[in-house]
Amino acid sequence: MIDIVQVSELAQSLSQVFAGLSDLGSQVQQAVPIDPAPAAAPLDAIETAPAGTSAPPNKHDLSIIGLIEKADWVVKGVMGLLAVLSVWSWAIIFDKWTKLGRAHKEADRFEHAFWSGRSLDELHEQLNRKGDGHPMAQVFSAAMQEWRRSMQTGPVSTGLLPSVKDRINRVMNVTIQRESAMLENRLGFLASVGSNAPFIGLFGTV
Q1: Is 59 domain-assigned?
Q2: Which domain holds residue 175?
Q3: Least C-beta-crowded within 10 Å: which of 35, 89, 123, 142?
Q4: Are 184 and 96 contacting, i.e. CB atoms less than 8 angstroms apart?
Q5: Cα–Cα distance, 189 to 206 (Å, whole number)
C-alpha cells in the first residue's frame, strides 16, 4: 500500500510548485505594461469632403465620348468613315423613297389618262405641254415620236408595218433602260456599303 505520509509530502510539493508559477506570472504582468486601446477619434475630427466638391475623376471612363477620346487615330478614322457613309446612305435612301413614291403616283395618273379613251395624239400633246417626265410618260412619248417620224413620208404600207413596229419596240426598250438606270442610280453604292460596312467596323477593332 502507498504510504500516506509520502502522498501528503508529494501534494505539498505540487502546491508549492503551483504557487511559485502563479507568483512568476504576476511578476511578468507587472514587468510588461499593457498599452490601453486607442480611444476613438471624435466625430468633429473626421475630415469630410466639403459640399459642392466632385469626386475624384474615374480613371476608366466607359462613356461613348470617353472611349472616342482614348481611341487611337486608326479607330477614330474608321469611326469617321462609317459616320460619313451612314449619312450619305441615309440621304440616298430618303431621295429614292421620295422619287419612287412620286413615280408611283404619276404612273397611276398616266394609266388613268391612257385608258380613258382619249386620242393618243391628244395625250401626247398634253404630256409635251406639261413637260411630264415620269418613266411611263417618257416611254409613251418616245414611241409616239417614232411613230410620227415614220408617218412623215406618208401612210405606212402594210409591208412596212413590221419594220415600223420593230423600230418602235427598240425605241421603247432603250427608253425603259434609260429610265430604269435613272431610278436605280446610286443603289450600287448602298449595296457596297451594306456588304462592306461590317468588315470596315471589324478593322477598327483590330
Answers
A1: no
A2: 64-205
A3: 35
A4: no
A5: 25
Q: Quote the number of domains for the chain.
A: 1
Asked if residue 6 belongs to a domain, the reply is no
Residue-wise pLDDT for 38-88, tens only, equals 555 554 544 454 555 555 555 677 787 877 788 788 888 888 898 999 999
Q: Which residue has the cell 459642392?
A: 52
Specify the amino acid at residue 165.
Answer: K
Residue 196, in any domain of the structure = yes
Q: How far is CA 93 from the centre of its chain?
A: 16
Does this model's pTM top 0.85?
Answer: no
Give 148-161 pLDDT, tens digit per residue.
Answer: 887 777 676 667 77
C-alpha cell at 175: 427608253
In a domain, 31, yes or no: no
Alpha-helix runs per DSSP H in 3-72: 4-31, 64-70
Q: What's the pLDDT band for 206 if we cut at 50, 70, 90?
A: low
- Exposed, middle or buried, 127 (CB in 10 Å: 0-12/13-18/19+)? buried
Q: Which three cell numbers stand for residue 185?
A: 442610280
How does DSSP classify residue 49? P
